[in-house]
Design a protein that fits this description.
heterotrimer; A mainly alpha (363); B alpha/beta (245); C mainly alpha (342); B: 245 residues; alpha/beta; six-stranded mixed beta sheet; four-stranded antiparallel beta sheet; 10 helices; disordered C terminus; C: 342 residues; ABC transporter involved in vitamin B12 uptake, BtuC; two-stranded antiparallel ribbon; 4% strand; disordered N terminus
Chain lengths: 363, 245, 342
Amino acid sequence: MLNHLLSGDLPRSRVLALMLVLILAGLLLTPFIFPGAKALNVAAKICIFIVLVSSFDLLLGYTGIVSFAHTMFFGIGAYGIAIALTRFGPTWKGVAVGVVAALGVSLVLSLLIGLFSLRVKAMFYAMITLAVASAFMTMASQFSEFTGGEDGLSFKVPELLTPGFSLREAPFLGVSLDGKLITFYLLIAVTVVLFLVMLRIVNSPFGRVLQAIRENEFRAEALGYRTVSYRTSSNVLSAMFATLAGTLLALWLRYNGPDTSLSFEIMVDLLLMVVIGGMGTLYGSVVGAALFIVAQNYLQDLMKLAGNASAGIPLLRDLVHPDRWLLWLGILFILSVYRFPAGIVGNLRLSAWRKRTQAPKEG
Amino acid sequence: MSEPLLKLEGVHTHIGAYHILHGVDLQVAQGELTVLLGRNGAGKTTTLRTIMGLWQASQGTIHFEGADIAARPTPEIAQAGIAYVPENMGIFSDLTVAENFILAARGSRRIEDMDAERLEWVFGLFPAMKRFWQHPAGLLSGGQKQMLAVARAIVEPRKLLLIDEPSKGLAPAIIQNMIVAFRELKRTDTTILLVEQNFNFARQLGDQVAVMDGGRVVHAGTMADLAGDEALQQSLLGLSLAAHQ
Amino acid sequence: MTTPSETAAVQAPEALPVVHPDRLPLLLVPALALLALPFVGSFSTWVTLTFAGLAMGMIIFIIASGLTLVFGLMDVLNFGHGVFITLGAFMATSVLGLMTAWTVSGSLLLNLVAVLAAMLVAMTVAGGVGVAYERLIIRPVYGQPLKQILITMGGMIVGEELIKVIWGPQARPLLLPTAFQGSILMGDAAVEKYRIIAVILGLLVFAAMTWVLSRTKAGLLIRAGVQDREMVESLGYRIRRLFIGVFIVGSALAGLGGVMWGLYQQSVIPQLGSQVNVLLFIVIIIGGMGSVTGCFIGALLVGLLGNYTGFLAPKVALFSNILLMVIVLLWRPEGLFSLGKK
C-alpha cells in the first residue's frame, strides 16, 4: 500500500524515513504543539515550498535543466488567484477560474520558452530564462490596474477559508476550529497529493527517459528518444506544478505582490533548497524546503544571539549579523554543489546503501 | 636497430563510456614515414589524439625520444617536438594565413622574427600560402586549407609530424601537389606518422605501414612488402575498400 | 599584422572568393540612432539622448567584454560576474571618500588624479579577487556546465553578502568630482560632461582591446582559442594560462565598469551586480557569445534603445532589451557575430 502510494520509490534510508515522518507529523500537529501565528505560517510556507521545490527538482535534478524562470510560473499561479478573486469576489468559481487561467498561461509560456530555447546549450537556457523572468517581474509591477503594481493585491477568499468562519463554537484541544485551520489542513492535503503525483511522474517510464537524457543526451537520442520533446514536456510539467504552488500561496496569504512570489530572492532560495536537500530526488526537496524555511525563520534568531555575543568584535559582528544569514547559506550551497552534489538525501541514501551491502560480509 | 623515435606499448583509450583503443603497439622510426591504415572506426584518429594527449591513455606507455609522454598535457607534448594536423585541419578561420603561421611558430612573436629562409622553403612547397598571405584563412578553398594545415606544422622544424588524412576530399591535382610536398619533407629527413585511407596515396609515400582494426595494430611491416603482396592487401585492406565503396 | 607587403598579395587573381567581411551589424548602431530622430522630434533632445545612450552602452561594453571572452575561450559562463562590478563601485566609494579634499577642489588635475586612483584601485582589487574566484569557484567545476551555473550563482550570492559585510547593506553615494559635473552645450543640446568622458573611455577600451586582439600574439592566441581550443594546445600553448589572464583582465574591466556605472548613477547599492547581470547576458547573446565586436555593438544598441524608448514610451523601455534580443535572434539565431566554433 505504502509502496504503491510512493510509486515504489521508498526512502531507502532509516534516517531519511524518520526525517520524513517527523516533517509530516510536525506539519500535521503544528496548530496543536506550536501555538501562534508565526509557527502556522512557517508550516504553511513549508508545504507550499515542498510543492515548488519538488517541481523545480523535476527540471533541475531529473532533467538537468537550469531555469531561472521558475518563480515566474509560481508568480503566475499566485496572480491567477489574486486577480480572479479580486474580479469575481470571494467565490469558489473565482478560485477555479484563477487556477485554470493560470495553468493555461503557464502552459503556453513554458511551451514557448521550451521550444524557443531548449535546443541550445544549458547555459543559454539559463540566461534566457533569467532575462524572461526579469521582464515578467517588471511587467507585473508595471500593469498596476491589473496586478496592483508594487503594492500587490489583497483579496477575500471563499468564506470557508476565512478566519471568520468557524466550524464549532468551542475550541478543540485549545485550538479554535476556524477557516484558517481548515485552509491549513486543506493545504497539507493538497501538498501531499501533488507530491505523490510528482513522485509517480519521476518514477514512471517518462521519468526514466528524462534521467537517461540527463545522463547522456547523445545516447538517449541514439536510442530513438526525441530529447527536445521530452525536455519540453518536463519543462511544461514543472511549470504546471509551480503554478499550482503559486495558487496555494495566494490562497494562504490572501495577498499577492511581486516580492511575494516573483522576486529573484525566491529563485535563489529555491536553488539553495534543492541543492542542499539533494538534487534528483524529490525527498530531497521535502527535506531541503523544511530545513531551509525553519532556518530562514529561526536561524536569524540564533544569529541575533551570536551577534549580541560578538558585539564588540568589528568584523565578526558583521559576519554573524542576522541579516547576513544568506552569506552562510551561500557558502553552504557552494560547498554542497562541489562536495556533496547529492545533497542531504543523496548522502543519507548512500550511507544506508553502504551499510546494507556491507552488513552481510561483516555478519 | 636503434630505439624508435616514438613507441606505443599496450595503449588503451576510453572516451566516456566507450573503449576505443584496446592495446595499441606501434613504433615509428627516426627519419621514416609510417602510414597508419585501417577502416573507419579502427582507432587511427584516436591513436593520433592519444599520442598528442588530447585524449588520455587509460593504460599503456607512449615513449617519445625515450621519455614516457602518456600522462603529459598536450602543450608539453607539442613543445617536446611533435606537430599535429587534425582531420578537421584546425585552421583558425578568423585569422589570416600569416597569423596562422605566426601562431605555429612558437619561437617568434612577429612575422619579421620568423626564419625567412625556412618560410621561403614552405612557400616553395605550397605557393598558395604566399599568394594568400594576408587573407583570412576561412576564405581559402578546402585544398588550400589542407596545405595551410600542413604548412603550419612545418613552419618550424619538428621532430615528428602526426598528420590525419591529408588527402581527404581533395581533388587529384591537389593530391599530387601534396605528394610532391611530402616527398620534399622526406628528403629533409622529417619523421612522419600519417593516417590515410587512400591506399594509392599511402603507397607512394610510406616507408613503413601499420594496419589497425578494432582498436589494435593488426599488421606492421614495410610498405614495399605490403605493396608487393596482393593477397596480404586483400586480407588486410579488402575490408576497408569494401566498407568504403 | 605588420609584414613586408612585397611578399603579400603580389598576385591574387584566382581561386579566392570575394572578400566580404560581415559589416552589416556595424551599421545597426547609426541606423538605430537615425531611426530614432524623427520619433524624438527635437534635434537637441535627440543629441542629449544619443549621448546618454552611447555613454550607457560604453559602460555596459566595458563590463560585458570580459564575460563574453571568458565564455568564448573556455565555455565558462560566470553568473557571478556582477560581483566584480559591485566590488569596483564600492572600492571607488572608499577611495574617493578618502580623497574628498581632492574631489571637491575645483582643480581639474586633482579631480582627475582622484578618479584615476579610484579606477586603478578598483581594477586592481577586482582583478585580484578574480584570481581567487577563478581558483576557488571556476576551476573545480570546469567542464561541468550544470554545476558551473550553480556554483557561479553561489559566488554571486556570497560575493554580494560579503560586500554588505564590508560596506554595509545601504546605498552609498558616489559623487562626481566637481570638474566633471554639469553639462556643456553642443548647439542647443546640453550634454553632460561625464557622458562624454564615458564615451571616450569606452572607445579607448574598445580600441585597446581590438589592438591587443589583432596585433599581439597573446591576442591572436585568444582569438584562435575561442575558435579551436584543442588546436591552440596542440601548437604548444597552455590555454589555461591564457584563460586565467583573460579572466583577470575581464574582472578588472568589470571593476572599472562598476566605477563608471556608480559615477553615472551617483550612488551604489550592493545589488548593483545582480541587477546588471541580466542586461549583460542580453548584450552578449545579442552580440554572439565570444565576440568582442558583437559585444560592443550589442552594448551600444541596448544603451541607445533604452534611452530612446525611455523618453518616448517609458513602459516599453522596461522590455526594450528583451525585445531587441528576440528580434536579433530571429534574424541571426547565434547573435550578430557567430564565431563558427567547432
